[in-house]
Design brief:
heterodimer, A: 279 residues, mainly alpha, B: 460 residues, alpha/beta, five-stranded mixed beta sheet, 20 helices
């Protein structure tokens, strides 16, 4: 039953993809009327103007370009032109650094706050205000005070990915079932031991969910941050190709950003499953 | 005679004849065209050899008459041979050419991917930085505010900036006041007003009321030129139209999406809009003010004082590249050098049209204007004074301005002049020149009167 469902879902996915590519292909065919112009003039103009080619690339253009990128992902033509593999590696390294810093701060801090109802209430308004701030709003402030663009980018990832983790940790720790804590108390378990053997395992699924939300946010943020500071990374690649109005490359970048984001999410989903327990 | 003429030419006078030293008499100087010519001598060594030999001859024969008699009697080549016998001309030349070793060899220079940055960019692939003993990494940057912040943060040692930006930064407009300096202008002309294709019939600016225009930055020549142009046609740029600050790459996309009606933008963006069939060239900025500056090469005072030799070498490389770019026959080669993704990242055809001046106008015609964009490094202080008058006119500066003091502090005409003379180029004698913007003459000596003479301006 389940295997046939999976098969049918797969089939529907493929049909949807094919339909999407087909519509895309039809929609971007050159349909605009071609105006007559002198050959001398036409030589100086782009294909959009001379052959009525759609400004939007079709799936075939994107496919060909993607193949070109995949064949040599690690080329390095100088500081402003590197292969997609290198750009992605830069982005992942930045996200990794900022995210790990956020984990190191958010989880211990969340634990402390979660164990004290007073602190949790007192800090809540601050967290709620800081949580929804967009990465682009932090960027000028970071650039101005940190005075280093790559550290600024990492800082922005840190500051944007810390809140979901913090909130989830606080929530997870605070909502550990009272019975378990009371049992630990009656058995005279020390505070530290209680935190690690009772609260941590109980709160782990919630904490991991927070971490999973955070990695998604960190990956969202990196593209915006790199578009702004430039230099390296997939966000810079998008900006550089936009500069050249190369929509084909922008679409490829969008595709890759999606795939990497999905992989990061899947990794954390697996961790979450590892710590989940049946009640 | 100039420092770079042949010192062994008997008929030449070794004493300077006119203010600039380029001409034999003041009268001849007056007659010469006022344009600044950047024509390098065949090679650097030849140039330096001439300078050194000149100095030696001058020291040996303080009187022109005696030197001429000596040269006439023995002949120039014998004189040179004799001179080399007891004076190590070669060594002296080498010493002269090796101006102080740069304190810092690995430099980072930021740029915005537009053709205004041509000298800064091309100097990397075409080896001008290397020639002056520097290892420069040119880094593409996302926008003017970012390039400003990164230069202030010292991530970049020097950068490509819009000509008014260093003035604005030095004055603390839109940023903390940090003294900046401009040793060289990048390009003159090379901008344009592009309108959306649907406005083909609306060529008279009087019909532009209510339209939306994009400019690259508030402190830009584009902003001042567009405002000037609109005001001359009776439109108040603050109330009759909308001016938006939009990063150049986004302009074409916005024009296509119908978010704006037109823009005054740097080139390759203008030509790109035409290339993609989105707009047409209404007017080259050259037609507003022929020879206007656009972008500059800027560095902080701090960098100049901590690494004066690096700065001098950098300026020399830029001036050298600018001189090379000013020649029409080199333009095609330059277009190919700066087009790849590592630099401007644009189709070669577009860059070629900009640099060679033979371009499609977007209306079905091919136009030719060899001076559509030109390159001239000399940082005229009168340019800075003009920009200050416009900042004042549009309310960016409030209160009194010491035009001359600011211009002289930011635009390093004296230093560049010295450097250009050392390099065998002929800089102009004065750092101030008068010019006309849309037929109205600007006198750099009377900036206050100039500001007051405009009917349309922001009331302060």
């Amino acid at each position: 039953m389940t295997s046939s469902l999976r098969l049918r879902a797969g089939l529907v996915s493929i049909v949807l993809l094919a339909a999407f590519l087909g519509i895309w292909h039809l929609a971007t065919r050159s349909t605009a009327p071609v105006t007559t112009m002198s050959p001398e003039y036409a030589r100086l103009m782009g294909l959009t103007a001379t052959q009525g080619k759609s400004a939007m690339p079709g799936p075939l253009d994107v496919g060909a370009k993607l193949w070109e990128h995949l064949r040599r992902p690690f080329y390095d033509n100088g500081p402003n032109d590197k292969g997609l593999g290198i750009q992605l590696a830069y982005s992942i390294a930045r996200v990794g650094t900022g995210y790990l810093l956020a984990v190191l701060v958010a989880i211990p801090l969340g634990f402390l706050i979660g164990m004290s109802p007073l602190l949790s209430k007192a800090l809540d308004p601050f967290i709620q205000v800081l949580k929804p701030i967009s990465p682009l709003a932090w960027m000028p402030l970071a650039l101005y005070t940190i005075k280093d663009s790559s550290i600024s980018a990492i800082f922005v990832i840190f500051i944007c990915s810390i809140w979901p983790m913090l909130l989830n940790t606080v929530f997870g720790v605070a909502s550990v079932r009272k019975e378990w804590i009371n049992v630990a108390r009656t058995l005279e378990v020390g505070t530290l031991r209680r935190a690690f053997t009772v609260i941590l395992p109980a709160a782990a699924p919630t904490i991991l969910t927070g971490m999973r939300i955070s990695i998604g946010i960190a990956w969202l943020v990196i593209v915006a941050a790199e578009m702004l500071v430039g230099g390296t990374g997939i966000g810079y690649f998008v900006w550089n190709e936009w500069n050249n109005l190369s929509i084909t490359n922008v679409i490829i970048a969008i595709l890759l950003i999606g795939i990497v984001g999905m992989l990061l999410d899947q990794i954390l989903a697996r961790f979450t499953r590892m710590v989940t327990f049946p009640e | 005679m100039s420092t770079f003429d042949d010192p062994f030419d008997a008929v030449r006078s070794l004493q300077a004849g006119c203010v600039c030293g380029q001409h034999r008499s003041a009268a001849e100087h007056e007659q010469a065209p006022l344009a600044l010519r950047c024509e390098p001598v065949e090679s650097e060594e030849k140039r330096y050899e001439g300078v050194v030999a000149s100095a030696v001859m001058r020291a040996m024969f303080p009187q022109d008459l005696a030197r001429r008699a000596f040269l006439k009697s023995v002949g120039a080549s014998t004189a040179l041979a004799a001179l080399s016998q007891f004076f190590p001309l070669k060594t002296a030349t080498e010493l002269f050419a090796q101006t102080g070793a740069p304190e810092k060899k690995d430099l980072k220079v930021g740029f915005i991917p537009i053709t205004c940055a041509t000298p800064i960019i091309m100097a990397a692939p075409m080896g001008f930085y290397a020639k002056h003993g520097l290892n420069v990494e040119v880094v593409k940057t996302a926008g003017w505010a970012v390039i400003r912040d990164k230069t202030i943060n010292k991530e970049y040692d020097a950068a490509h900036m819009l000509a008014p930006m260093p003035i604005a930064i030095s004055l603390g407009l839109g940023a903390n006041a940090i003294p900046f300096a401009v040793p060289a202008i990048e390009n003159i002309n090379g901008q344009g007003i592009v309108l959306a294709a649907k406005h083909k019939e609306k060529r008279d600016p009087k019909d532009w009321k209510g339209m939306k225009f994009a400019i690259p930055f508030d402190y830009s020549m584009h902003n001042y030129l567009l405002r000037y142009y609109l005001a001359e046609h009776g439109l108040d740029p603050d109330t009759d139209v909308q001016l938006r600050s939009v990063p150049p790459p986004e302009m074409v996309a916005n024009l296509r999406a119908d978010n704006i009606d037109g823009f005054l933008a740097p080139d390759n963006i203008c030509q790109r809009a035409i290339y993609d069939g989105v707009g047409f060239m209404h007017l080259l900025s050259k037609e507003i003010w022929d020879g206007h500056p656009c972008c500059s090469f800027a560095a902080s005072r701090e960098f100049i004082t901590t690494a004066p030799n690096s700065f001098a070498a950098l300026t020399r490389a830029i001036v050298d590249a600018t001189a090379y770019a000013s020649k029409a026959e080199n333009r095609k080669q330059i277009a190919e050098a700066i087009a790849p993704a590592n630099y401007i990242n644009a189709p070669v055809t577009v860059l070629e049209q900009v640099l060679t001046g033979t371009y499609a106008d977007g209306l079905g015609g091919v136009k030719t204007d060899a001076k559509r964009v030109d390159f001239d490094p000399f940082p005229w202080q009168s340019f800075a004074v003009w920009m200050l008058t416009q900042m004042k006119r549009w309310g960016q500066i409030k209160g009194d301005v010491d035009y001359k003091a600011v211009a002289e502090q930011v635009y390093l005409a004296t230093d560049t002049k010295k450097l250009m003379t050392e390099m065998g180029l002929s800089p102009p004698a004065s750092a101030y020149k008068s010019f006309a913007v849309m037929g109205k003459t600007f006198d750099p000596a009377k900036p206050e009167d100039y500001v007051a003479s405009f009917k349309i301006r922001k009331s302060s």
